[in-house]
Amino acid sequence: MTAFARLLFGRRARLRWVHLILGGALAMPYVLVGSVAVGPALGATNLFGSVAVQFASFAVGLPLAAVTSLFPPTRPLEAGVVRWLCGVEEDLLAYGPARTKGEKGRTAAWFTLHLGFGGIVAGMSLAVPPFATVLIVLPVFEGLRDSRLGLPAVFEQSWALPLAPVAGVAMLVGLAGCAAGCGVLLARWAPALLGPSPEERVAAAEARAADLAVRNRLARELHDSVGHALSAVMLQASAARRLLDSDREFVREALAAIEDTSRRTVGELDAVLGVLRDGDAPGTAPAPTLADDLDGLLRRTRAGGLRVRAAVTADPASVPPLISREAYRIVQEGLSNALRHAGDRVTVAVTIDVADDHLRITVENPLGEAGAPRPGGGHGLRGIADRARLLGGAARAGAAGGTWCLHVRLPLKGSV
């Protein structure tokens, strides 16, 4: 019984009832316009004096409503009201105006149904409650039994008076059931009539894919930049602590490298996070490239005590900016992996050259004591592979003969 009462009079049912009443209010101007044509045709001068005239005016007005529903704001406004009052999930409804013929046809069908059901329920909501109230109190007030009130003749009989309140309550319940049923039907039809078309779903999927691509790129930038900086700073601080009493000059260089690394990383972090702040302009710190900061990257890495042997035969200034930026991050991540897994007592060999119109990057270092990646690792190598694949290149990494080798090939032709 409680579930039945909630179905008819619960919050969701009441909101859908309001939605139908709004549809009836929207239908009234169309009914009045329809009465202009129907009234003279049927010889009626009073719209509200004849039920037949009202229904005829209603039937003429609904096609007019279907035509006006073709205005662009109709679908987004109707979808917004349906989300709020009918409880339909947002993802099932479209946000923009109808553009194609199919979308416009479905919008017209929805608007017609909304105003049609709404006009009927709104009319019943105006007429039924007063009539039902009269029936409920009829046994108590004898004056209401006057035939001029339009009550059924049966209720003028004394034996039928006890049944009048039952009939009144039944009418109210029937009104609530009709409103609830119409609300359920409209809520069920809304996704089909106001939902996004296949073209809109494809466009939304493409927009989500583009957004995910941007976020993945930002995640790679944060991982490579901040991860390398933290690894380098940790190594530099550790080396400075060990040599604090024996080599003050090295300690000063390590602290200077920590300061430089931290400053550059904060600038890059601000640039990346600026993209994520709604309404904020992106940060002004430029993305590093081989030409801009390869020497600085190697210098800061060596300042922490890691021995880096670099052989750069490619001219960084001649590498296209996009390739140069991604190559810088790849070298940075290769050095970060060496710092994390091999420690600061090994020599890392970095080779950058050009062969067969490809920029080749190789980073080699002895395996650490464990000889395996740390738990939870692997994101950096996956990021390197993603960078190379997006540029049409390839990357491979693995251990061979006690040495870990990262090798990346990036095409130079066709790059901007």
Q: Using DSSP, what is the number of strands?
A: 5
Q: List segments where confidence is low: pLDDT < 50 over at least 5 consecutive residues.
A: 279-285, 370-377
Largest sheet, in brief, is: 5 strands, mixed
- State the secondary-structure class: alpha+beta
Strand order of the largest sheet: 1-2-3-5-4
SSE arrangement, N to C? HHHHHHHHHEHEEHEE
Strand content: 5-15%
**Helix content range of the residues, please?**
55-70%
The shape, in one word, is elongated
The number of domains is: 2
CATH superfamily of the largest domain: Histidine kinase-like ATPase, C-terminal domain
Any guess at the CATH architecture of the largest domain?
Answer: 2-Layer Sandwich
Radius of gyration: 38 Å
Determine the mean pLDDT: 80
The tally of helices reads: 11
CATH domain class of the largest domain: Alpha Beta
Measured distance between first and last alpha carbons: 71 Å
Reported by name, the CATH topology of the largest domain is Heat Shock Protein 90
Protein name: histidine kinase
GO cellular component, one term: membrane
EC number: 2.7.13.3
GO molecular function, one term: protein dimerization activity
